[in-house]
Amino acid sequence: MSDYQLTRNTFGQLVLTTTAGAVYEDVVPVRAFALSAPDEGIALVDRHGRELWWLTRLAECAPPVRLLIEEALAERDFMPEILAIRKVSTYATPSRWQVETDRGSTTLTLKSEDDIRRLKFGSHSNAQPNGLLIADSHGLQFLIRDRTKLDRTSQHFLSRFL
């Protein structure tokens, strides 16, 4: 990223400055593969979603720039990971789920079984789609990295919706 400088302005927004002198405020990093390759394929886009800079690997950035990008990504990509499902109100949708996440206990509302998406982690052709992405009624995304590693009760609740 030697052709560009990345800083924060007084409002906390990222500012991208090119060696040609172009200045772009309110720049946002966006991961191309947020779950399967979170540190590869990151675009810096302007407030209209136009790509300004493409970064193949986050590790290629200087440490201060990498820290700015990592902080901005953490703010943007809030996605709690479900560690256990404690209770489900009903097996019909909509249903309320009481879950334990890596960020504490919470309740989510599943509007439809279609709000559960299967994910395959890893690039191996034999990788199983054991990951799940669950969208609650407010649009918040919850991640289950590997449903086979959940406790039996959680797996039982999930099996009723898959």
Automatic annotation (TrEMBL):
It comes from the Bacteria. Residues 24-161 form the DUF1854 domain. This is DUF1854 domain-containing protein. It comes from Rugosibacter aromaticivorans. The lineage of its organism: Bacteria, Pseudomonadati, Pseudomonadota, Betaproteobacteria, Nitrosomonadales.
